[in-house]
Amino acid sequence: MHPAVPIFIAMLSAGLGYANPLLHLPAAILAFPLALGMIAFSALSPRKALKQGWIAGSLASLACMYWIAYPVGVYGGLSWALAIPCPILVAMLMGTYYGIYTYILNYAARALPPFALCIFSGLLWTSMETAQGFLFSGFPWMTLSSALAFRPEWIQGAAFIGAYGLSGLLVSVATAILCWRISHPAKVWAIAVIAVVIILGGMRTSAEQFSDLLKTGDTSIGLIQGNIDQAKKWDAKYKKATFEKYIRLSRQVIHKTDLVIWPETAMPFYLQDGGIMRAEIMNFASETKTPVLTGAPGYILHSKGDFSLYNRAYLISPDKKYMDWYDKSHLVPFGEYMPFKEFIPLGKLVQGAGDFIPGSDASPLQSGDLAMGMLICYEGIFPELAQERVEKGANILINISNDAWYGDTSAPRQHLSLVTMRAVEQGRYMLRGTNTGISACIDPLGRVSHATELFVDTAVAAEAGLISGNTFYHQNHKAVSTTPLSLTLLCAIWIIINRHKNRAEIKI
Fold it and tell me: Which of 157, 217, 325, 341 has the fewest CB atoms found within 10 Å of its own CB?
């Protein structure tokens, strides 16, 4: 087989498998690890496996994340000549993970029997996705299992082993397919895993109630999608019009909701400063007896006259004269702050209030029976952040975002699929309110309802449940997260020792 064939398969499978606006075929994503396995097993040396795996992974990453050029080129103030290389550079960095995967798998294929190789490949992939979530500030955008999120019956395993673990399980099946002709146990493993995924998915999604969880109440929440033009959002001339639009849209659903949600930085001004518009929001909440949750920048003044900026979610309650808030804890590099700004002579690549700093309190925002675990924008792609919110008592998860940056690209759809995995992992309803879409209600089984179209003004009232009790994944989060890492490390050590032992025997 020509080396270009699996590289092309990897790129095509990522382009079709991850959510996109043209042709989304979720099952196609399984061909991605299949192609990387073909590279690992056919390469004549680990070094060649590394090179080919890096190329395949880079092209697959580019097919998934081409949209990075859009916010940089449209809103970042850079020419397209500089914007277009941005996703290429990010893809090349992401490709490094897949190159290392094929490098290690090439070694493993020389030391492990086929069935053990299937298990090891799954553990290695899980460890790789875990690393993507932590290294270089974390960017776990290409979680393999998230490509299947639009088919809830396929992702129920995430409630037990998490999205990363489910990805690894699927990769072990892809490896078993490659070993199909030479290993009977590999055949049995592939068939057994597929059967378990299908049966588990059917059992969980066909039940009327969530058997391992307890619904303690119901709520109706208004999701207000203002569809504010990103190019005008921070222009002071449009501030009042933006505010009035959110009030007007909220009135369409206010009579049947317990809370209305406005998106991330829906109010492009410092709400804490007071003024007419703050007074009007407070009066609106008091008049309608309905709390308002809205994004807005916030700040803290320091004694030396300087200040710290935060990406903040404010809760305005009808019966309080003050506001509760949550400050975003995981910020977007180059978007919300500049890493290494002492050495990199660039400003932020997108518009906004300034350089933010991370918050530190993940406690839920309380409104009546609602204990809202907040995830602002990018935070929704990190499993450990949702885990922390539920640990602190959240009975519902709220994701406010502004995906207007990305236009009508794959990004808003991929963002929704990643957030869906958090709902399944934690066994919580996820209410998602965005500026331009996709706003939605996601139940604890990953079923999406009340999804809005992109770039429309709309207000929807979504019915959701307040959940207590925890999934297996939540209860055993540390074990589920660390066991694959530990086993991968132990297997790698065994492979290295075995390789050196074999070399010594050959010399003798």
Answer: 341
Quote the pLDDT of residue 406. Answer: 93
Under 8 Å between Cβ of 144 and 162:
no
CATH class of 214-475: alpha beta
Give the three-class secondary structure for 354: coil
d(CA 49, CA 61): 18
**Which position among 129, 153, 264, 336 bears the catalytic label?**
264
Query: Strands 307-316 and 292-301: what pairing?
Result: antiparallel
Token reading at 98: 């897949």
Contact 30, 151 (CB under 8 A): no
At 340 the pLDDT is 52
Closest alpha carbon to 463 in 254, 257, 294: 257
> Which residues make beta-bridge pairs with 274?
none
Contact by Cβ (8 Å): 403, 128: no
For the chain, the 3-state helix, strand and coil shares in percent, each to the nearest 5, are 55, 15, 30
pTM for the whole thing?
A: 0.94
**So where are the chain's domains?**
4-206+477-507, 214-475
Strand partners, 376: 400
- The rounded mean pLDDT for the chain is 92
The Cα 335–Cα 349 span in angstroms is 6
Token pair in block for residue 455: 């770039």
Does 51 qualify as catalytic in the annotation?
Answer: no
Neighbour tally for 367: CB within 10 Å: 20
Helices of type H across 207-327: 239-251, 276-288
The dihedral of CA 427, 428, 434, 438: what is its sign?
A: positive
Residue 396 has pLDDT above 80, yes or no: yes
Residue 453 annotated among the catalytic residues of the structure:
no
Contact 30, 174 (CB under 8 A): yes
Q: Which entry of 328, 348, 441, 491 is annotated as an active-site residue?
A: 328
Considering the candidates 377, 379, 425, 441, report the single residue annotated as catalytic: 377
Least Cα distance to 225 among 453, 463, 381, 462 occurs for: 453
Active site residue 153: no
